[in-house]
Design brief:
alpha+beta; 48% helix; single chain; six-stranded antiparallel β-sheet; four-stranded antiparallel β-sheet
Length: 700
């Protein structure tokens, strides 16, 4: 770089040499930094993005600070209606809607500083009303929340017309509760409220977009984590995911509540230490005498909610694997119960790592020219959009068996894909160890979420040539490999069937129909009329966007189905909210993209399995948000294969960055940003009565 600098000076030895030296050296410096992929370039760009993020935090996210800087604060007198004055600023509510009124203002208002603290309440909804030049009667603005612990909420921006003559603030406090008007100022100077976390988030997102741009060095190298820097990036990524998931898993304390239906796995772990497989104490005699204990109306408050009740005993009908994997070892080691959010967190981190592993094995085996950047961005979209983020932000008991089964199956598929090897002399072979442990994990799905066992069908395209052409499986010369694939299924299958038989008298009865819930599951049956609603809601329902944070609106399931429909609130179907999935659809209808028929079969099978799971979930339980975790990650596997195939097709099976591949990379970046925005906002959405809007209002 030093030589470039002085050579440039030498070439421009003319009048005003000093000025030209300065100009050309500056230009050369930036050309050197920004044109070539180098460490200096990335340090410079990341520093520039950091400056942009800090400026955005100061002048965009703190616009109230800028807009109110010239204000002259006023401290008005006020009266309070429907409350009894207890002290200087303290009042007691009479149970009716209270109203703070300020009269004789007669000036424009841009901001209001208002803070109210209510005994035992984190936040309180308030409604601001005004009489202004355009309204002789009260103009009522939309309701907003004031939180004593959140300074930002104390400074609402006002948009009334001209001079305001009177202003009122309405709020409702329970009868005999005390509240305190802690601050009240007209046209205050809003303080600077700098959020380092927000600035860092903006910096990370913009930096990721820059790193994944089409001109990045990440697209100049084939995917091969045996290269040290690629392996290091992958390791750093997994550590970053683990670090990021931890606060997400802990921000909703509602998920670790200790009520009887949410501590079932802990109860099962304790029962196992006693040599029992049923949970709870003796059954209430009244329960034993009920003609139909599964009728919630007849049962009333009897029984243990959301447990399987069979012949007078209570069982956990959710798969036993999480209890054996997490709760039992922790209880034996410490004597203490394991928090559910911790178990979910571990499964989510492992599921993310499994996604990276499985997609790497897909690229290594069938798409050797896939650039490392394409592999990374597709993997991140699959992790963000595949149901893991939703689960880690709602880490309660119910999605735990789903995410654990997802982790088992994804790792299992990765091991199966990695089992095919080529020796030094060019001979194709299979690794019995990888076959065995892959099958062990795939079979373990039955002990966690049985319907996800359908993913074992991926063995057909994965091992098709090894079975029918190379005779490395299910032939006389491949007995060892065949045993390695089949034995885990036989062992796990036998154990699960014994467990089912010991509980419900049948090796094939997992007990879900004996669930004590809001409807009689034993009479639910299979009804074709439910299928259309399930497919539409899970797959094609459009999202609803609104103008206020968090901008996503929950959608109620509406149906003309003349019968019972169990449903929760939704945010939209996956084909409407996960644009990368359309790559899978393109793959299904563009067979020419796949030179290897096994890849086409893999893509088609991923969507077939997903649709089958949608139908099964709709029939067995209903339309519940957590059931996206059953199938969405499987659809993403098919979409990922299609993305790799599309890239391979566009660059004609060479390793070149062309105009067409650049456009495709830009599409991937758009999908990446959409995934971050949609699932980032989804964290804050109230989905039918739970979420941080209810349990962590201060954070919200």
């Amino acid at each position: 770089m030093k030589n470039i600098f002085f050579n440039t000076i030498a070439k421009n030895n003319v009048e005003n040499q000093n000025d030209k030296i300065s100009r050309f050296s500056f230009k050369t410096f930036f050309n050197y930094i920004f044109r070539n992929e180098s460490l200096q370039k990335y340090v410079a760009v990341f520093s520039f993005i950091l400056i942009i993020s800090l400026l955005a935090e100061l002048f965009l996210f703190n616009y109230k600070w800028i807009c109110s800087s010239m204000n002259k604060p006023e401290y008005p007198e006020y009266t309070i209606e429907n409350a009894v004055k207890e002290g200087d600023r303290t009042y007691k509510s009479n149970g009716e809607e209270s109203r703070l009124i300020i009269r004789n203002i007669d000036m424009p208002l841009s901001f209001l500083k208002f803070n109210i603290a209510v005994e035992g309440e984190e936040t309180i909804p308030v409604t601001i009303c005004a009489k202004d030049e355009a309204n002789d009667d009260w103009l009522e603005a939309p309701s907003l929340n004031i939180s004593d612990g959140v300074q930002r909420s104390h400074y609402p921006r006002l948009h009334f017309s001209g001079d305001v003559s009177e202003l009122s603030v309405k709020f409702k406090v329970a009868e005999d509760k005390e509240f305190e008007i802690k601050s009240l100022t007209l046209n205050p100077n809003v303080p600077l409220m700098f959020s380092l976390g927000r600035a860092l988030f903006v910096w990370i997102v913009l930096s990721l977009i820059f790193v994944f741009r089409p001109g990045s060095f990440l697209y100049e190298y084939k995917t091969d984590i045996r290269i040290r820097w690629q392996g290091a990036i992958l390791l750093v990524l997994i550590v970053a995911i683990a670090a990021g998931f931890w606060p997400l898993s802990k921000m909703d304390p509602w998920c670790d509540r200790e009520i009887e239906e949410t501590v079932q796995y802990q109860m099962l772990a304790e029962a196992l230490t006693r040599g029992e497989i049923h949970i709870a104490e003796e059954t209430d005699p009244k329960m034993l005498n009920l003609e139909n204990p599964y009728d919630s109306t007849a049962r009333g408050s009897l029984g243990r909610w959301d447990t399987a009740y069979y012949e007078g005993k209570y069982y956990v009908y959710f798969g036993i694997a999480p209890a054996l994997l997490y709760y039992l070892p922790y209880y034996l080691a410490t004597g203490e119960p394991l928090t559910t959010s911790t178990a979910v967190y571990i499964s989510c981190v492992l599921a993310a790592a499994a996604t990276l592993f499985a997609l790497y094995q897909l690229a290594r085996r069938w798409f050797k020219n896939t650039p490392f950047g394409v592999y990374l961005i597709v993997s991140l979209i699959c992790i963000i959009g595949g149901g893991i983020i939703f689960t880690v932000k709602r880490p309660d008991f119910y999605p735990l068996p789903i995410i654990t089964a997802t982790m088992f199956a994804t790792f299992g598929l990765g091991l199966w894909l990695s089992a095919v090897k080529v020796s030094n002399n060019g001979e194709k072979m299979l690794s019995p160890a990888r076959l065995f442990f892959g099958s062990l994990l795939m079979a373990a799905v039955a002990a966690s979420r049985p319907q996800i066992l359908l993913t074992s069908l991926f063995a057909i395209p994965i091992f098709w040539n090894e079975v029918f052409r190379d005779r490395l499986l299910f032939s006389k010369k491949s007995l060892k490999n065949t045993i390695a694939v089949c034995l885990p299924y036989l062992i796990i299958g036998a154990l699960v069937m014994w467990y089912n038989y010991a509980r419900f008298g049948s090796p094939f009865d997992f007990g879900a129909n004996y669930n004590l819930t809001s409807n009689d599951m034993t009479k639910r049956g299979f009804v074709f009329g439910r299928i259309g609603l399930g497919l539409f809601t899970y797959l094609f329902q459009l999202p609803q966007i609104e103008a206020t944070f968090p901008f996503l609106n929950i959608i109620s399931v509406e149906s003309a189905y003349q019968g019972l429909t169990q449903s929760e609130k939704f945010f939209g179907g996956v084909m409407a909210t996960e644009p990368l999935l359309w790559a899978g659809v393109i793959g299904i209808f563009s067979k020419k993209l796949f030179k290897d028929k096994r890849l086409y079969a893999f893509t088609c099978l991923s969507f077939v399995i997903s649709i089958a799971l949608v139908i099964l979930d709709t029939q067995m339980a209903g339309l519940l948000r957590r059931y996206f975790g059953d199938f969405l990650w499987i659809m993403y596997l098919g979409a990922a294969v299609s993305c790799f195939a599309i890239y391979k097709y566009l660059n004609k099976d060479t390793f070149m960055i062309t105009a067409r591949t650049r456009r495709f990379i830009n599409i991937l970046i758009v999908c990446f940003v959409i995934a971050i925005v949609f699932h980032g906002l989804e964290i804050f959405v109230d989905s039918g009565g739970w979420g941080i809007i209810k349990s962590n209002i201060t954070l919200y």
